[in-house]
Amino acid sequence: MAPPARGAGGRVHRDRVGRPGRGRSDDPPEGFGMAGYADTLAGFLDRLGVHHPHVAGLSFGGTLALALYGRHPTTPATLVLAGAYAGWVGSFPAEVARQRLEDSLALADLAGEELAAVLVPTMFAPDAPRTLVKAFARTVAAHHPDGFRAMARASATDLREVLPRVAVPTLVLHGQRDERAPRPVADQLHAGIAGSTLTVLPGAGHLSPLDAPLAFNRAVRSFLRSAAQRGVASGSGTASTAGSTPTSSPG
Q1: 143 and 246 in contact (C-beta within 8 Å)?
Q2: Which of 207, 204, 203, 172 is nearest to 86 (CA)?
Q3: What's the pTM value of the predicted model, to 2 decimals?
């Protein structure tokens, strides 16, 4: 990840939240769904005493941020949705969403190195530094198969009904060379969330904070500064949701 973004008054305290089914977290139960992830995140933030944070998410984490707002609309002060979806079902034609879920469930059965070989090339711009790509591949290779399947099933949701209800400042970030969440997906989020800002990061792929860290941070800093000028204050800094941590993800 790039360094934490700075807000209007300097560095923002940031909590990076790991999701169930990755790292040292337990795998979620069958049928956990995006609602389960969103409720777990809300409960975890409350347990930490993180109230009314700026919530930023990448890929699956962006969809989770949107689901968090849908189920707990008083929690986020703002939203940053990077490479995000309104769920696969909400952002793609039915056949594309079905195929993406089917492919992801099949990928979960691969050995870690095989999974990385298939997934990682779709995450970065073609000219991304090899050292960066290899480092990310190591995190993918350490995936939890059951956790990966749970994320895939949760991703196959439809959050379109949440978009018109979003009433907090929202930044939609799109990597210009993102293959996994192409430009029409970002346009849909931007059009559906009234007053949102769409920023395209030139040359970046799906993992825009890694492909274009300086541009990503500039966009987030500018957005938070603008929100502060409009009187939007975070009670406890910034929470970056699970998908914003480089790791294996079916996003």
Answers
A1: no
A2: 172
A3: 0.86
